[in-house]
Amino acid sequence: MRRKKKGWLFMMILVIGGMVLIHATDVWAKPPKGVLKQVIHWGISADWLDPATAGYPISAHLPLYLFHDALVKAMPEGNFTPCLAESWTVSPDAQVYEFKLRKGVKFHNGDILTAEDVLFSVRRYKAAQAKLLKDKIANLEAVNPYLVRFTFKEPFPDFLEYLCPGVTSLAWVVPKNYVEKVGDAGFKKHPIGCGPFKFVEFVPGVRLVGEAFEDYWRKVPNIKRLEFIQAPEPATRLAMVKRGEADIGTLMQGVFYEDAKKDPKLKLFHPLSPTRWIVYFSNQWDPKSPCSNPKVRKAMSLAIDRQTLADVHMPGCKGIGVLGLEGDPGLADFPADPYDPEKAKKLLAEAGYPSGFHAGPFFPYEGGYWPMGEQIANYWKAIGITVETKLLDRPAWVANREGRKMTNAIFIDPATAPTIGGRVTYLFGTTSYGNYPHIEKAWEEYQKTGDSKKRKELIWEIQRMIHDRTMFIPLVNTNSPAAFGPRVKGNPYKVQPLIWFTAPLEDIELAE
């Protein structure tokens, strides 16, 4: 009896001691403090504040990550890191996916996340690939408050890839009760999520501001307030960092890169990026366009000096011949086309254009990447091909690209999904401007089969057919150097290309 009492007393001491330790940990945890200002080179759209309208752009991942959270998302641990879903299962036929939700997750207004919020978020999603996804869903149900089940009409082995940035924003969850109360327009004015920071302010074309959410499930953010200031001119971004008006200035290129590298007060980091730049010909399906001829597209590829392009605009990067990321097991490796303007002219002559031609509208990618587009246009001009360059800011560029309004044109496109399958989805899915029947047939077969060997054979064959027809011109990969002031502790860019400008945000620290 005495031994039992002693054992019971010992257990009580352990329990009480544990409770005291947990309480002490909460007390000793450092509260968020300080303000970090990052001056960025891209514009932000109000549509990106709401997961339902954010869609595929990697740049939309910044406000998504700031204010919201997803079932799974890219983190330093990997592309498919459990977040709001602490685990998931997939049926052997890849038709049923079940997500077990993390319990106790709070939205910024105090609401507790449940399966109903997930169902509501999926049903209201209306951005990239929305129709394709909803056409595939046979049933969507809340099995219990913390278990969501997706049942598809046919095998859907790629479903998780559709949840990653660069493909869709379907996995990001909003509070059902709040959205129903304020409506879609009201939600964009003041988004409520369960991300690491609460919404403070958004002034289009000027700044985006968030304040630490101390009840964030993963951890308390280190920094109290994050401000993202929009400045398209690199001279402005660098000057602000040098003067201490900003702590981070993104996209340092050319003379600004060299200037930042020489300044002893600054650090220059090269965040990884998933972006692989390509030239997309939406006019290749117009039989009246010279670009409908594969020889013309090949000539335009041979006219580009990729290494010089990389050296000027992406220091440390290189020319590429493929769409995907290195290490992707589904990637078929093709070398980058060499710089050969003489061969390019010969191909133009064989195609019936010895004196060149006018290729119509050309849309370089937004802001800091306009000079890259202009340099490409100059390479084409050197072999006799002229274009009408049109400059759009990023939200307008994305809206036109996604809405398929850049028809009968040429544009610089960023392929950003984590896998080659996701990248082909972006190019061939609902945002596609066209395809070829034999490639489309192989793509449809790839999407339906669950056989891993067959899938690899098909995705390799699809890439070969893309390469043989020069459907797109792969250009360069990206690292986007950024200048850091002395207030930023360490290097906050984690080794995860899909979150290159988002850190994770809650992990960034200021120097003491």
Describe the structure.
With about 500 residues, the chain is α+β, with helices and mostly antiparallel strands. It is built from 16 helices and 20 strands. The strands form five sheets. The chain has a seven-stranded mixed beta sheet, sandwiched between helices. A five-stranded mixed beta sheet has the order 17-16-18-15-19, sandwiched between helices. A four-stranded antiparallel beta sheet has the order 5-6-8-7. The protein is globular, with a radius of gyration of 25 Å. The protein starts with a helix and ends in a 28-residue tail after the last strand. Residues about 1-5 and about 10-25 have low confidence and may be disordered.
Total of domains:
2
CATH architecture of the largest domain: 3-Layer(aba) Sandwich
- Structural class comes to alpha+beta
CATH topology of the largest domain: D-Maltodextrin-Binding Protein, domain 2
End-to-end gap: 56 Å
What characterizes the major β-sheet?
7 strands, mixed
Tell me the helix content: 25-40%
Relevant CATH superfamily of the largest domain: Periplasmic binding protein-like II
CATH class of the largest domain: Alpha Beta
Mean pLDDT: 90
Poorly predicted runs are 1-6, 12-27
Give a concise summary:
The protein is an alpha+beta fold and 512 residues long. The protein has 16 helices and 20 strands. Strand 3 (72-75) and strand 4 form a beta hairpin.
Task: Provide keyphrases for this structure.
D-Maltodextrin-Binding Protein, domain 2; alpha+beta; 2 domains; Dipeptide-binding Protein, domain 3; five-stranded mixed sheet; 512 residues
